[in-house]
Structures are given as structure tokens and as C-alpha cells.
Predict the 3D structure of the following.
Amino acid sequence: MPVNIEINNISVKVPKCDTILSAAKKAGIKIPTLCHLEGLLPSGACRICVVELEGSLNLVPACSTAVRDGMKVKTHTARTLDARRTIVELLLNNHPDDCNYCLKNNYCELQKLAYELNVRTRSASHSVRHMNLDCSSPSLLRDPNKCILCGRCVRICEEIQGVSAIDFIKRGSSSQISPAFEEGMNLSSCVYCGQCVKACPTGALIEKDHVQRVIEALNNPKAYLVVQHAPAVSVSLAEDFGFKPGVDVNGIMVAALRRIGFKKVFDTSFSADLTIMEEGSELIDRIKNNGVLPMITSCSPGWIKFIEQFYPELLPHVSSCKSPQQMLGAVIKSYFAEKQGLKPEQIFSVSIMPCTAKKFESDRTEMQRDSVPDIDAVLTTRELGQIIKIFGIDMKSLKPETADTPFGTRSSAGKIFGTTGGVMEAAIRSVHFLITGKEMENPVIPELRGLQPIKRAKVKIGELDVGVGVAHGLANARVLLDELKAGSSDMHFIEIMTCPGGCINGGGQPYSLDLEAVKARMKALYKIDASDSLNKSHMNEEVGRLYREFLGSPLGEKSHELLHTHYHKREVLK
């Protein structure tokens, strides 16, 4: 039931369940926040959003104060602005002055607030804490000196991801956010998903830098540089260059990568098709030979670390397939190396991913052959944007180019890997053909699309009623896994993506918590799928050629050697 309130002398009708913050947003009035996370219950911790409320002696937090009929609110009075400036000044008094060297420079919300509130001088002495950097993670870097204790990282890790790798410790002025026992992130339950990096308003949490590693390789005349780019990158990179969210810059990005100096530019969507051939064949094999069911996808490295830590007893359910990144890395340093007359160690293989956990995945010993890693460096979407700027490339002036053969041809099924439900939909399209020998009349499975936390469907494939499930965000994954442990699951195949929304909202994507941007990226991937006649992985002729010339057949000896692996239980501090 709507209520009538007054904000800055403007009458507004809003739902009774609204807060002052959401009501003001609907009225076109921006109230600044630091601790607030859309979709989660408000904590009211930072007090940046305080407003004046008629009848109240004290300022009230807009994020946690519910509206009521007849309420009169003032959002930008001298008193509220003074309170906000005071909070920002106090935070800056205890914050390092290294903005020019900080990875979050120009993206820092504290910096932006200081500008918007006209905070130009200090009212108190500068007293910065000096705590050690945590560089122990293969994917993330934690700088507690830049932490403003907003708690957003803690809430994302606990409430959205169900991991709880970090929390508040100590009290009063000694308070900080840390893993258990003040140990390094490498000893915590962290899955390196990077959702905390996206949520952090300052530079307290950032990804481990691979930019310099790639630039050094580009300047090494003995290195043969190749690069692959993930399906979700082309519909998100544009945001870093002033394009609207969801604009697909695939061809422009390929052109930019060639100008940077990569000898070959490949498309990870090709190896997504390859993954479907292996994973689909594995599912069919398990169904026919009474293997462990349901089978669970293994494309998301944060998810793999999660199950290794929290549900190791369910590891037999996980597909033995490597991720598309690692499959293409392995094929580049075997098949492609042979074709080019190169040794694997001569190739410097770079992947561009929407995911910080991919840095961790590329470092795993399971992803090496004879001590040579399949992938030598992983750039996030953000890092790619940085390199493009370093090399002075004007994205808006480039003409689109196509990726290189033999790993540049992809189906649109491989492209929709970038969104939640995409892996499952792509798999069903090919499993249907592999079982029945016939194409699906309609390859679109509506039940698997959208941002619902958990999606389920029954798909008729020949005589089989195949039960499938999809979860994105690890707290949602726990629901399906607990069902599986309880023996109540009737599914054959489960897709789990670490990040909410899938790779389109990965921890390495542009700094944004805007759900509309995520929806725009998803829409762009499905638009590509709708307009592409090559929409099934088994139809990719280049994948077929790879099997004929090198791999043999899905699940064959060569395929198992290069494209499959096994995962193991991990111990973490508790």
C-alpha cells in the first residue's frame, strides 16, 4: 500500500515498505552512501546517508529508516552536509595519501565523496595506521591501511557468497577487517572470486596485478605471445571506454589486441564449444554407465575451490573437464605449438577473463604439463582496459577484426557461457544431438534464463527426462548442494557459477554494483545467440577438425591427457 511523504518539499507516493533512501532515489534525489548494498538489509554503519526528519532531534540514516505516511524529510541541509563532510574528513585523516598510485584512483568512492562534498582541507592531524599488506593470495591483494570499515566486503562474502573468509576483528579504534586469526588470505576460506574487490569502495581490496607481467613479455623478442578472450569480456569492456553497458565490442577488442602486439588472438568461446563436447559426452557416459549423478559443471574456478573446501564429499559429482580457459591453454601449448614448430615454453599464453579466480586457477599445479603452465598470465577485464590505455589505443577509432584460426571460430552456444544458465543451455543443445542424432527444434530454454537465484527445468531428450539445475552466487549453490547431500535431488546435471549473474558479473569486471549493467550484458549475449545460425557447439567445424587432426574423440586418451583433471579436498583455517 503506498504512502505519501515529502522530500525536500516535493510530494512523493512510494510503497510502504520503502526506506527514505529508496524513496529519494525514485524522486530523482541522490543521497550518498558508503556501506549500503542494494538488495541486502541495511546496516546503517557509515552514517553518510543521514537526513533531517521532521519531529526527530537527531539526524537519521536514510538507508535504514522506513517511510511512513506524512513524513517530511530534508536531504541536503547545512546540517546534513556538515555531518557528511565531517565523516569523510575523519576517514581521510586516517587514509593514505597515495591516490596517484592506487589502482582504485578515479574509481574510489571515498575520493568521489570528498570531491562531491567539497572536502579540500584537513581539520585534524593526519594519522595513518601502518599495517602489512596481505599479498599471500594468488588473485587478490589486501591493503588494510586503506580500509574504511564499511563492511561491504564482509557482507558480500558472507551473505552473497556464503564463504565468510573475512570479518571484523578487535574493537574500537583497533577494529579492522581480516581473515581468521589475522592470517593471510591464502590460508582462509577465500575462493578468490573478487566480489569483495567490486564491493570495496576504496583500494583496500584489489586484484593481483598481471599487467606488468604481460608488458614485460610483450617486450621479450624470444616470446611468442598469444591471447584468448572470454565470452563475457566483449560485452563489458566497452563500459571502461564510455560505451553503454552491454555494447558488444568483440571485433574492436580483437583489433586492439593485435595493435598491442599479440601474434595470435583467439576466442575462448571456441574452447567453450570444446568444453561442451567433453562435458556433454561425460554426462552421457555417466547416464549410460550408472556413473555418479548429478554431474556438476567445473568451469568456474572459485566454485571449484568452494566445493574442495566446504563439500569435498561431493567432489565425485564434479565434471573432470578443465575450464575453457585451461582447455584452450593446453591445446595452444600442444596442438598449436606443433603446428607452429614451437616448444611449449616458447609460447607466452595470456587469457583475458572477467574473473579474478582465473589467476588462481592458472597457477594450480593440475594446470601444468612438465612444469610448464598452460596459461602464463591472466588479465581481468579491468586490466585489459588499463593496457589498452597504456598503449594509447583509441577504441572508438578502430575497425572490427576477426579472431585468428584455428581457435577463432565459435558457436553462439559458446558465447552464452558468459551468463548464468548459459553453460547448461549450451550443453543441453549438444547432448540432445549426441543422444538422439537430431537437433533441438527450439534451442532456447527459457527456464534457464534470467537472474533467479536457482533455476530448474526438465528437458525431454529422446526417452529421457533430464533434470537440470542452475545456481549462481555460492550461497545459492549451498541450497542445491545441501539437497544433494540429503538425497532429495532428482537432477542429472547442475551448473554452478561463483558470481551472481555468472561471468557477466565476475570479480574482474568493471567496477560497478549496478544490476542494470549486468542485465544489459546478459541481454547482449542472448542477442548474439538469437542472431547466429551457428548456435550449437557440436556444429563448430573447427572443433570437429581439432578432434580429427589431434584429439581423436571426446573422452579419448588424448582428450583426457590435455582437457581433464581431478580436484581434491582442501583444508582451511576455521
